[in-house]
Amino acid sequence: QVLRRSLQRGAALSAGSLLVYEARKLISGFAEVHASFKVEEVIEQADYLYGSGETEKLYQLLVQHKNSDDAELLWRLARASRDLAQLSSTSAEEKRQLAYEAFECAKKALEKNESNFAAHKWYAICLSDVGDFEGIKTKIGNAIVIKEHFQRAIELNPKDATTIHLIGIWCYCFAEMPWYQRKIASTLFATPPTSTFQEALRYFHMAEEADPNFYSKNLLYLGKTYLKLNNKKMALLWLSKAKDYPAHTEEDKQV
């Protein structure tokens, strides 16, 4: 009888433990689904605010999720931090703080998902921005890494016009580089990175083909590059397009 009671008690305990385990599993599953829905909801709100040019509201929404492990949220926060830094109303100290904040978010996004093209793109952009505060030697020293991440972003998403444009900017900057910066580059690299205005022009046109009229700055740089190549007729064409571009953002107004 004692043995029977012990066995019955053990069976009851096992059944109870099993029920608790299953309940926990169910609750955990619901929590994961809920978290997933929440992330999608935040991303949807963020993309709407970004499209509306609501830079400050977008930053306030996303900064609440700075400890997230979701690469999609993190690269968007990096972009929002950078956009906030670009505003004319942002102080010099805040610009610096936001640049480093954006870089850390982009770095974390890349660590969480190396197959995310936008994480590579924003890591490269933010690494370049940080170089502005650390001097020309650091900026040139990071140049190869920056280009590699842009190229990886294009491999992962060949239709992303913005990344193609950014490689064009990279080429333009190295084509335009003054002699003293070239000297610094030659001390940092056995074979210093170089480019030409023709190469830059090719990328700007590729970006325009991928997504026509997508970005005021691409139109501006097409015009500027044609000027560098002494083609005033084509320069006028693209600079006129840049001038007539609807100004939705602070950057559009600067362009």
Automatic annotation (TrEMBL):
InterPro entries: RMD1-3_a_helical_rpt, TPR-like_helical_dom_sf. Keywords: Cytoplasm, Cytoskeleton, Repeat, TPR repeat. It is found in: Cytoplasm, Cytoskeleton. It comes from the Eukaryota. GO terms for molecular function: microtubule binding. GO terms for cellular component: mitochondrion; mitotic spindle pole; spindle microtubule. Interacts with microtubules. Belongs to the RMDN family. This is Regulator of microtubule dynamics protein 1. It comes from Trogon melanurus.
